[in-house]
Write a structure and sequence with these properties.
The chain folds into 2 domains: about 80 residues, no CATH class; about 100 residues. Helices cover about 0% and strands about 10% of the residues. The termini are far apart.
C-alpha cells in the first residue's frame, strides 16, 4: 500500500475491517491529514502482529470508536504521535487486544471525549495503563472501561474528573489482580450507575492519592 494516494480521503471507516488473516500492514506513506473518521478501521484484524502508525496525522479525527477492536495478536501500539484533540468517542478502542503488552497513550488529549466504554476491556497482558494525563471532565460513560485487565495491579486515576459521569457500571469487573486504584479530588460518582463496579476485582474501593 506504499503507492496509495490518500491525500483527499476524509473517511477511513471500516477500511481494514474483518481482514482476519492479515499479519502485516505498511501504512507509513498514508496521508491522513484530511481524515475525520477512523471508526472500526482495524476492527477484527485478528492476526495483525505489527502496526506502525507513527506517521498518522489524526488532528481532524472525531471518531476512534472500535478502532483496534479484536486485534488479538497485536503486541505493541505506539500512539504517542496521535493528536486526539477533536475525538469525542473512544469506546471499545482497544477492546479484546488480548496480547497487547505495550500501549502508549500518554499524549492523548481527551478533553472532547464523552464515551470511554470498554476502552481497555480485555487487554489481558497489559501490566500498566498510564492515563495520568487523561482529561475526563466531559466523559459520561466509563462502563467496562478496565474490565478483565488481568495484568494490571495498579491504576492511577488521580487526574480523572468525573462530574459528568453517569455510567460506571462494571468499570473494573474481573480485573482480578488490580489491588490499588488511586483517585484525586475530581473523583465524584454519586450521580453514576455503579452496579457491579468492582465485581471480581482485586479491590472493592478506590483510594484518594496523596500528592
Amino acid at each position: 500500500m506504499r503507492n496509495f494516494n490518500t491525500e483527499k480521503v476524509t473517511n477511513m471507516q471500516q477500511m481494514f475491517r474483518g481482514c482476519e488473516n492479515l499479519e502485516e500492514l505498511d501504512l507509513r506513506n498514508f496521508d491522513t491529514r484530511s481524515v475525520t473518521n477512523m471508526f472500526t478501521m482495524f476492527y477484527g484484524c485478528k492476526n495483525l502482529k505489527q502496526l506502525d502508525l507513527r506517521n498518522f496525522n489524526t488532528e481532524k479525527i472525531t471518531n476512534m470508536e472500535w478502532m483496534f477492536f479484536e486485534c488479538e495478536n497485536l503486541e505493541e501500539l505506539d500512539l504517542r504521535n496521535f493528536n486526539t484533540e477533536k475525538v469525542t468517542d473512544m469506546s471499545y478502542m482497544f477492546f479484546r487486544c488480548h496480547k497487547l503488552n505495550n500501549l502508549n497513550v500518554t499524549s492523548f488529549n481527551t478533553g472532547a471525549v464523552t464515551a470511554m466504554e470498554n476502552m481497555f476491556g480485555g487487554c489481558h497482558l497489559l501490566t500498566s495503563i498510564d492515563v495520568h494525563s487523561f482529561d475526563t471532565h466531559s466523559v459520561t460513560n466509563m462502563k467496562w472501561m478496565f474490565q478483565e485487565c488481568y495484568g494490571v495491579t495498579e491504576l492511577d486515576l488521580s487526574s480523572f474528573v468525573t462530574t459528568s459521569l453517569t455510567n460506571a457500571e462494571k468499570m473494573f469487573i474481573r480485573s482480578s489482580n488490580l489491588r490499588n486504584i488511586y483517585v484525586g479530588p475530581g473523583w465524584n460518582i454519586e450521580n453514576a450507575n455503579t452496579d457491579l463496579m468492582f465485581d471480581g476485582c482485586g479491590t472493592d474501593k478506590v483510594t484518594l492519592k496523596n500528592e
